[in-house]
Amino acid sequence: MRLSRYFLPTLKEAPSDAQIVSHQLMLRAGMIKQEAAGIYAWLPLGLRVLNRIEQIVREEQERAGAVELLMPTLQLADLWRESGRYDAYGPEMLRITDRHERELLYGPTNEEMITDIFRGFVKSYKSLPLNLFHIQWKFRDERRPRFGVMRGREFLMKDAYSFDIDEASARKAYNRMFVAYLNTFARMGLKAVPMRADTGPIGGDLSHEFIVLADTGESQVFCDRKLVEMPAPGRDVDWDDLQAIVDERISMYAATEEMHDAGQFETQTVEADRLTARGIEVGHIFYFGTKYSVPMKARVAGPDGKDTEVHMGSYGVGVSRLLGAIIEASHDDSGIIWPDSVAPFDVVVINLRANDEAVCAACEEAVAKLEALGKDVLYDDTDERPGGKFATADLIGIPWQLTIGPKGLADGVVELKRRATGEKLSVPLDEALAKVRG
Ligand code: 5CA
User: Fold this and answer.
1) Best substitution site from 133, 209, 212, 321 to test ligand 1's pocket, by max atoms within 8 Å of Cβ?
2) Which site from 132, 265, 381, 435 is most exposed, i.e. has the minimal number of CB atoms within 10 Å?
3) What is the pTM of this model?
4) Closest ligand 1 atom, residue 151 Cα
């Protein structure tokens, strides 16, 4: 992608109402534009990262056995009356009336709709276990939308819903999502800690939030330091029996403010491991049994032929919020430092003299070779001065910067910089390519 033909509206200064660093950097890097309070347009660079995060979430959901579908953003109010949540949800729900005076709402979550889909098609326990997910925009009319995409009103969520014949099997579904979440966030370079959590309007009595520790986090959290450093379980696990992996983690103290018990914290952890911090909730999983299947009559025939209500759970990931969380966890004074796995481009090739034929030819050769290696390349072919180009490259956080100018070219070298460490190498192009290839 040539920068001269791209759309990257970077800003010198962040608007003064952007309070936290991730919001400031997303605006300065030309990733998002606010359209209304808590509602953003995703500009090309932001959309690239959003898509990459979405894809990691999708892959890890599928690895854990969940199946993707797509439900609409608009839902019928009557469906929500069946569960009793239409009135219970309160002013966070955006209610809409169509031209036929039919009451609709912009979905804040999808338990009712997925339960309706399920009951329409699934009649036997033989179709279970089943876990269906989608990645769709949600709307919650938050009282205080703030911090950019962290607490938006319109935001992208991955929500999965599991259906099982009984509680024991539903807990296995819960464990699969628990482990999938650990792997998902680790792939994005995040340390996300599962913590006991309040279930709020979703309901149920078993629930964990996945929290990324960051000073700007909205909630106060308390946990055992060892839990933060624990590596993710990885893909090669027995997906049918994850209890030991889950138990090892939930046996260590970790709780959000609402669930915190100071006495228990002291007895369960030694003082040196007691961590009190702030955190960002990037995921939340719930087991709520038959809360929706009873009122909505979602039943299947069991092995004995008798109809029984299914046991359900729901599992959310804040896909758009994750951009903010990743930036909070990975930036410096010059800008964003994207982990390789979610970066909008893998490499930026910086042309130091865009009016010099030999330099342009060398840059184009480098771009072509990088693309042949399967890399996504942003080619800064603009006639901006070098200082401005380096500042932009640092700001937008591309993991590798490959700089080519007349002086290096005369010596047969290019400069390769790793954004995360600042480490620079002056080497022949082929050596730089080998480094980037990894
Ligand atoms: N139905 C359940 C699970 S699918 C549910 O809605 N859970 S939730 O309310 O906890 O939301 C799931 C995730 O969405 C949260 O963990 C959070 O990461 C993200 N999220 C929630 N509200 C917002 C918001 N206003 N802005 C951005 N992300 C949000």
Assistant:
1) 321
2) 435
3) 0.97
4) 26
Nearest ligand 1 atom to the CA of 322 is 18
C-alpha–C-alpha distance, residues 321 and 327, integer Å:
10
- The encoded tokens of residue 41 equal 């347009």
Residues of the chain with CATH 3.40.50.800: 347-437
Find out if CATH 3.40.630.10 is the number for domain 347-437.
no
Dump pLDDT digits (tens) for 296-344: 999 999 999 999 999 999 999 999 999 999 999 999 999 999 999 999 9
Q: Which CATH class is domain 3-336?
A: alpha beta
Can you tell me the distance from the alpha carbon of 376 to that of 398, in angstroms, rounded to the nearest whole number? 10
CA of 192 to the centre of ligand 1 (A): 15
| pLDDT per position as a tens digit, 61-89 | 999 999 999 999 999 999 999 999 999 99
Residues of the chain with CATH 3.30.930.10: 3-336
Calculate how far, in angstroms, residue 159's C-alpha sits from the geometric centre of ligand 1: 9
Fill in the amino acid letter for 218.
Answer: E
- Please name which of 211, 232, 233, 234 lies closest in space to residue 223, comparing C-alpha atoms: 211
